[in-house]
Amino acid sequence: MEQIRVEKTASRGIVVEKVYMYLEPDLTPATGTIADDQVQAEIEKFEAAKNAVVEELGQLAEKNEIFAAHLEIANDFMLQDGVESKIKDSKSNVEQAISNTIDEFAMIFASMDDEYMKERAADVRDIGKRMMAVVKGVKLPDLGVLTEPVIVMAKDMYPSDTVKINPALVKGIVTEEGGVTSHVSIIAKSLGIPTLVGVKGILSKVDDGEYICMDAGEGIIVVKPDEDTEKEYLDKKAAYEQERARLEGLRSTPAVTKDGKRIYLCANVGNVQDIRNALPMNIDGVGLFRSEFLYMQNTHFPTEEEQFVVYKEAAELASQELTIRTLDIGGDKELSYYEFEKEENPFLGWRAIRISLDMKDMFKEQLRAILRASAFGHVRIMFPMIIAMEELKNAKALVKECMKELDERGQAYDKNIEMGMMIETPASVMLADEFAKEADFFSIGTNDLTQYILVVDRGNKKIAKMYDYFNPAVVRAIKQVIEAGHKEGIKVGMCGEMAGDQKAVELLLDLGLDEFSMSAGSIDYVREQILNRE
């Protein structure tokens, strides 16, 4: 018997079941170069593979919008040019050309500091895997063939793998790679499947078909358990399931403390599917819609109409509140179709609202789309990385310009739409009392705020322990912002990781936070803490 400790819990739960090894065929690209007279044939092989993958993704996109972004990437002219140029110029065979181009695309995402965006590299590799399988003429594994309950173990799982997950048969998931913001993690949370990711070396320690015990909440895997251990985990599983049923029974209860304060529980989302996944938690709305993903998972700056379609659907789903953060790129977030000037300190450079105010036409396309969507639900506009009153006033002025343009078109919108801002820099904290006179609401972004106040790069492993939103300096900043907002009568929320941290709930309630916005999987636990608050 061996007990393995794991850091990355993607979805809680306890399971005792046998292992199903979900292993891919060898997709290692063939080595060697090609002759000049082979170039056209290799290009034609790529075209055939691409067309086959596009057709398959098109069918998947009709069932699940996750694959709409995959389809865009597969059709991306930069991907095609990358592969074809490697075949023509470097005389790479088609397998090498696909592999190297996919690596380049994936590296753009993998190098980003934002964990959510880092995990998007898996989307790119998913496409590469599909193309390589077509070129090699091999079949990929299929979870649709399962006939009995199992714990699925894999090196990693891609969005196309998760489509076939049947929670009646897939009782647990363990991967060697991946992170808590990957698609498999998101899907696992929405389906309530216990999941551990990033478990290095696990495939070499477990045999296909053998039973294991897994406590995903505690981050424990027990390999080759004895009878007593197996019984212990079965008992723990029964107790956990009773607890989950109890928590789910609280979902219909509004989050009100025992002393009568109503707290709003919202979800952080990146797309419409995330909203659908969060709705069963009985959310009070969406506290953060990351609009940048519309831009990052595209081949061009999305048009007003393209954005409107997405925002409208989101507003109808999250009709109580949909807070759309305007474009937040720069820093660690890049666009494949727009070349940013290299900066020595990109996190302190041209990013977020600075880009939007400089690229006004692009910004107004987004603002008009948001305004039009506001006719279909309670939509709020949130500006990121504001550090000066002039920025906030200029952004609001552009919204007013867009309102006039929509009036001229005769298109409906909420004329009283709320316009608020992220508090995520020391400057915005120190000026919070002034900003509160101009903004309709605040949302504290503790991820950036913590790293800026502490001067700690949250992606630097050497100083990771210093990144701590419980640091007194950060806590004082949060307190100052909440007090400034309440003095002017505006709601103060939080959409950083701290909002979903059970260890932080009591503190944030003490400080007077009005709205907690977090990943959907944390909402049940935070709700209970609020309901038990004296």
From TrEMBL:
PEP-utilising enzyme mobile domain segment(s): 147-219
Localization of this protein: Cytoplasm
Catalytic reaction(s) noted: L-histidyl-[protein] + phosphoenolpyruvate = N(pros)-phospho-L-histidyl-[protein] + pyruvate
Top-level class of the enzyme under EC nomenclature: transferase
GO MF annotations in UniProt: phosphoenolpyruvate-protein phosphotransferase activity
Domain PEP-utilising enzyme C-terminal residue range list: 245-532
Needed cofactors: Mg(2+)
Phosphotransferase system enzyme I N-terminal domain: residues covered: 9-120
Keyword entries, A-Z: Cytoplasm, Kinase, Magnesium, Metal-binding, Phosphotransferase system, Sugar transport, Transferase, Transport
Enzyme Commission numbers on file: 2.7.3.9
Function per UniProt: General (non sugar-specific) component of the phosphoenolpyruvate-dependent sugar phosphotransferase system (sugar PTS). This major carbohydrate active-transport system catalyzes the phosphorylation of incoming sugar substrates concomitantly with their translocation across the cell membrane. Enzyme I transfers the phosphoryl group from phosphoenolpyruvate (PEP) to the phosphoryl carrier protein (HPr).
Family: Belongs to the PEP-utilizing enzyme family.
Name recorded for this polypeptide: Phosphoenolpyruvate-protein phosphotransferase
Organism: Dorea ammoniilytica
